[in-house]
Amino acid sequence: MSYAYETIADIIRLSEEHNLSFGDVVMRTELEQYDRNEKEITKEIKHRLDIFKASIKDGLRNLKRTQSNMSGGEAARLIARKPLFMSDISYKAMSYAIAVNEANAKMFKVVACPTAGSCGVMPGAVQAVAEHYGLDTPTLVKGFLAAAGVGNVVSNRACVAGAVGGCQAEVGTAACMAAAAIVEMMGGTARQVGHAVALCMKNLLGLACDPVAGLVEVPCVKRNGVYAVHAITAAELALAGIESQIPPDEVIEAMNNIGRAMPAALRETSDGGLAVTETGLAIAEKVRSL
After folding, report:
1. What is the pLDDT of residue 35?
2. Is 119 helix (H, G, I), strand (E, B) or coil?
3. CA 201 → CA 93, 94, 215, 241, distances in Å?
4. Treating both helix axes as pointing N-terminal to C-terminal, what angle do 190-202 and 137-157 enclose, rounded to 10 degrees?
5. Of 87, 99, 119, 289, which has the maximum CB count within 10 A?
6. Which residues make beta-bridge pairs with 209?
């Protein structure tokens, strides 16, 4: 019996046929395709989860501004106050995600999930949910596997690079991975994981990649915070039984088509969007003079 998959629909089908969770199917695939046992795979996932936690701490502890002066210290400022409007989980997810991206901008170690520019979304959302519900490491490992399965599908059938598909491909995929992880961690079905992915991705289609001065800081750092909360929203909807009218694989295909149709100015070239505003150009000029 093969557990190979190409689409989200494949993973859901295998899950339902064999009474496995979404993450369990991904684990079976890993065991089938690579010369590693379950203990080795789990050890590597735990290592990445440790980096998640470390990068959050690095971002919160290091208050220095980056060399460009565009980011640094803002996650710590958020954690130091109480939210006015958001739930504790969402507020912490936002703060943690920003912390990880601040750490990335200062060259601390991060997990690119799927890219360095979107590295805060999944750690922020996953760690916030895990802390709130006291989830154990095996549960987080299953969530990580579910996220990995989603990342594999998007990488193979579409793209995860801002230079190819805009920020919808980077932060969009990161948010989908985080939503999938959360649904899996909370005991959702494989079908609910799929709907979380669809609900997440279809609500950020067309998002441009327009980094100011060509650096992964503005709007990237705070964008990770916003989309960590977006991932939690999609997971909440899916776990409540809300379904996407458009299946996840079709949403992924739409994202890919939209991204490739975007003008080059909106695909990480810094030739459009926020990067060419009056202030964005002034910042770029300052950065060039450093």
Report:
1. 87
2. coil
3. 18, 18, 24, 17
4. 60
5. 99
6. 267
Looking up tokens 């793209």 gives: 159
Report angle CA 179, 195, 147 to the nearest 5 degrees: 35
Average pLDDT over residues 160-179: 98
> Across residues 15-36, what is the average pLDDT?
96
Q: Evaluate if residue 138 carries a pLDDT over 90.
A: yes
Q: Terminus-to-terminus CA distance in the chain, angstroms? A: 59
Q: What is the CA radius of gyration of the chain?
A: 18
With beta carbons less than 8 A apart as the criterion, state whether 60 and 75 touch. yes
Task: Check if the beta carbon of residue 212 is closer than 8 Å to that of residue 188.
Answer: no
Distance between CA atoms of residues 97 and 95, nearest Å: 5
Q: Contact, 224 vs 172, CB < 8 A?
A: no
Q: Are the C-beta atoms of 201 and 169 separated by less than 8 Å?
A: no
The whole-angstrom separation of Cα 63 and Cα 207 is 29
Averaged pLDDT of the chain? 98
Residue 97 CB partners (closer than 8 Å, separation 6+): 120, 121, 123, 124, 125, 224, 225, 227, 228
Show the tokens assigned to 267. 């695909």
The angle at the Cα of 122, spanning 246 to 199, to the nearest 5 degrees, equals 15
pLDDT tens-digit series, residues 115-130:
999 999 999 999 999 9
pLDDT in tens, 195-234: 999 999 999 999 999 999 999 999 999 999 999 999 999 9
Contact call for residues 97 and 104 (beta carbons, < 8 A):
no
Rounded CA gap, 90 and 62, in Å? 22
